[in-house]
Design goal:
Layout: H1 5-30, H2 34-39, H3 46-55, H4 60-73, H5 78-106, H6 111-119, H7 122-157, H8 166-212, H9 218-229, H10 242-254, H11 260-265, H12 275-305, H13 318-326, H14 329-380
Helix pairs in contact: 1-7, 1-8, 1-14, 3-8, 3-12, 4-12, 4-14, 5-6, 5-10, 5-12, 6-7, 7-8, 7-14, 8-12, 8-14, 9-12
Length: about 375
């Protein structure tokens, strides 16, 4: 099986992309109107909503950048996981019930709709839609680039298309993403998120098991090995220090509350009372998926220190190299598919809220402002 490792990895990623297309076609049959396209008919259950919320938060950063930060700064990066979990709790406490009720009052189909209802202002709708659109363009571009780089690395290792360019990888990744988002709207997005979230959880548990076995003494030996080389990185605050770790709170806890693609999904469950059950599903799913983040970083750092693995040219290579060299081929394929899942779940969430801003919120806000100006001008005349 190891002789066909690259073929297996590519096969897993290709299978995942085909399944995304199938989900898009299925969702297209269930999408009857704009309410279904942008809000999934406000008919989602606890499990679907909970997994969709956490999987759209854990982007490619959690699967590539997370292990790299553990490799570089030790325990400091663990505080990101803690702060992100706090962010989930704050989001649901501050917004969960309130935003659902506002959305139900006006049968809203977007976050700017809710803002306009709350502040009774079309200008606020326009500003919110504009902020979402500007954020979407930057973030979506970075996610597509990440998908393209990973796809290029996978295909260049095999014999099928070794000289594929990054531009072609961008085209392939974008085509799959846009297809299932456009055909099925948010229904395709959330059910793909469900599939993606389950892949992430399974992959994280399996990788955690193999990372534990990287050294005979498990994580205890890894911690001792890293501490002997750099005691500060295994201290409670890690190499970044207390102030640096505390700064994660503002970015991942407070900043997490304002993620539009996550907040929008809080409006889609069918019952407001479900919020209390959605939160633990999201937090537990995120916590389990973060095991991959932490375990790979510790394992690779310890393996390098002990001379069992060459020094990494870049910390971001920690996860790909661990998967390629220290896990079975089929697991590597599943985790690379999970990496695509993590990236695409975030990207498709932003694509949907961005599309709502372009085709619904900004035109409606401009129409409302023009009507108000015309009315005031008529009174003045």
């Amino acid at each position: 099986m190891e002789a066909y490792r690259n073929t297996i990895v590519f096969g897993c990623v290709a299978t995942y992309m085909v399944l995304c297309i199938v989900i898009g076609l299925w969702a297209m049959r269930k999408t009857k109107n704009a309410h279904d396209f942008f809000m999934a008919g406000r008919n989602l259950g606890v499990l679907v909503t909970g997994i969709a919320v956490f999987s759209s938060t854990l982007s490619g950063f959690g699967f590539v950048g997370g292990p790299a930060l553990i490799y570089k700064m030790g325990i400091s990066s663990v505080w990101m996981v803690i702060c992100a979990a706090i962010g989930f709790c704050l989001s649901f406490y501050l917004l969960g019930k309130r935003i659902w009720l506002f959305a139900a009052m006006q049968d809203s189909i977007s976050l700017p709709d809710v803002v306009a209802t709350r502040y009774k202002s079309e200008l606020s709708r326009f500003l919110m839609a504009l902020a979402i659109l500007l954020g979407v363009m930057a973030y979506l571009g970075s996610q597509i680039k990440a998908m393209a780089h990973v796809l290029q690395d996978i295909m260049s290792r095999g014999s099928f298309w070794q000289d594929i360019s990054l531009e072609w990888c961008v085209v392939i990744s974008s085509a799959v993403l846009v297809f299932y988002c456009v055909t099925g709207g948010i229904i395709a997005s959330v059910y793909t998120d469900l599939f993606q979230g389950l892949i992430m959880i399974i992959a994280a548990l399996l990788v955690f098991f193999y990372a534990y076995q990287a050294l005979p003494g498990g994580f205890a030996e890894m911690s001792q090995t890293i501490a002997a080389d750099d005691a500060e990185s295994m201290a409670p605050w890690g190499a970044l220090g207390m102030l640096g770790c505390m700064s994660w709170y503002f970015l991942f806890a407070l900043g997490g509350v304002g993620q539009p693609h996550v907040v929008t999904k809080m409006m889609m469950n069918k019952n407001v009372r479900d919020v209390r059950y959605i939160l633990p599903v999201s937090v537990i799913g995120f916590g389990v998926s973060a095991l991959l983040w932490i375990s790979i970083g510790l394992a690779m750092r310890a393996l390098v220190i002990k001379g069992l693995h060459p020094e990494l040219a870049a910390a971001d290579a920690a996860a790909p190299q661990f998967l390629q060299l220290h896990t079975p081929a089929i697991l590597a394929g599943v985790v690379f598919a999970a990496l695509f899942a993590a990236i695409m779940s975030t990207a498709d969430g932003f694509l949907n809220v961005g599309a709502a801003a372009v085709v619904h919120d900004i035109p409606q806000a401009l129409r409302g402002v023009l009507v108000t100006l015309a009315w005031n001008w008529g009174l003045a005349v």
